[in-house]
Amino acid sequence: MRYQNTVFHTLLKHLPWGEFERLVELYGADRQQRGFTARTQLVAMIYAQFSGAFSLREIAAGLNSHQAQLYHLGIGPVRRSSLADANAHRSSALFSDLFAVLVKQAHRGLRRTLDGTTYLIDSTSVALNGLSAQWARFSAEVCGAKVHVVYDPDADQPVYSAVSAANVNDITAAKAMPIEAGANYVFDLGYYDFAWWAELDAAGCRIVTRFKRNTPLSVTEERAVPGGSNILSDRIGHLPKRQANNRKNPFQKQVRELQVRIDSGKILRIMTNDLTVSAQVIADLYKRRWAIELFFRWIKQTLKITRFLGTSENAIRIQVAIALIAFLLLRLAQATQKAVTSPLAFARLIRANLMHRRDLRALLEPDCPLPINQNQLTLL
Asked: What angle, 0 to 180 degrees and rounded to 10, lies between the N-to-C axes of helices 38-51 and 343-353?
């Protein structure tokens, strides 16, 4: 009988191990770690994401119960104390950089087209307990963090991520994000900064966002709108010449305002620096913001990004980076088969078969440890 790798081993093959070893050497990540390697830590934390383990002890027990498979995963026994110490002290930058490398690898395989790249920018909050108060205190009684993400809806994957304390403004984090010249950037009111808009515009990017209700527009042109649509007005004009404290507004170019009625009946003021395309194209671009909200909901419900295994800033950053790595591994693995099209159903099948020796393309076959047929997938 032909040898078959475990499902977990097959998923890990998508990792750029050569680049990981280079990063380990770059950061000196395996120095003074008493034999608990960065690879063992990475594999253990990815296992936590796929298996749904809720504690360090559960991670160690789950992996150590499969001693025969650990050799093929390239790791040794996992101890709870060693994993806790590594999460607290091994640099989170190692795993953030691995995520960045995997993003580039995945983007080539998952993106359907390279033209008209659209990126959605947003953040999601995660609650932390009082043990994280030293770095993540939001108020007297609340501690939390934010995960800032740039998301490509066409590839269905994040392309950038950063973690901050919950009291850091979204625009502060956005200013540290890389800008891709010529791309479309869609974001909401949390990124209301005329200087940053001017920077995006100077890079040839198309901006689609919302106006605040109290932001005036000096109108220079009124355009006709299609009859019977949800677009109520289409106007060209200038932003205020001065900002607070009488500072000069750095964004002096003409902009465009659309008033759009959404399904709830609410009227939105949508702003863009694109004065040429149809109003419907701009409205449709802004509507795509919903995709990043669905992404945040998916990773919170499916991966371990709401319940943390450590309390230090370093441990939180590691867990978020590895959760996003796990998401990309699922996307890359799902792309190798056509039997399961639902990402949620695929994730559940992976969890049910994680340490079984099975081909990913055969997870729906009758000998699956937890039989699931195509009709049942619609209920997942």
From this structure: 120
What DSSP assignment string belongs to 38-75? HHHHHHHHHHHHHHT--SHHHHHHHHHTTHHHHHHHT-
Token digits for 129? 């307990």
* Adjacent-strand bridge partners of 163: 147
**pLDDT band (50, 70, 90) for residue 111:** low
Whether residue 62 contacts residue 47, with contact meaning beta carbons closer than 8 Å, is answered with yes
Domain boundaries, the chain: 7-95+309-377, 204-276
3-state secondary structure of 151: strand
* Whether the Cβ atoms of residue 168 and residue 146 lie closer than 8 Å to each other: yes
b/e burial code for range 240-262 (CB count within 10 A of at least 16 → b): eeeeeeeeeebbeeebbbbbbee
- Tell me the HSE value of 258 on the side-chain side, using a 13 A CA sphere: 29
Q: Name the least confident of 13-27, 210-224, 360-374.
A: 360-374
Token pair recorded at residue 360: 């990913």
Half-sphere exposure of 195 (CA within 13 A, CB side): 9
CA distance linking residue 161 with residue 327, whole number of Å: 13
Strand order in the sheet with 118-128: 157-165, 143-152, 118-128, 184-186, 206-210, 267-272, 254-261, 231-238, 218-223
Give the model's pLDDT for residue 366: 52
- The beta strands (E) that lie in the chain are given as 118-128, 143-152, 157-165, 184-186, 206-210, 218-223, 231-238, 254-261, 267-272
Q: Is the pLDDT of residue 222 over 90?
A: yes
Under the banding of pLDDT at 50, 70 and 90, the label for residue 105 is: confident
Ranges 98-102, 187-191, 225-229: which has the least confidence: 225-229
AA identity, residue 85: D
Rounded-to-integer distance, Cα 205 and Cα 207, Å: 6
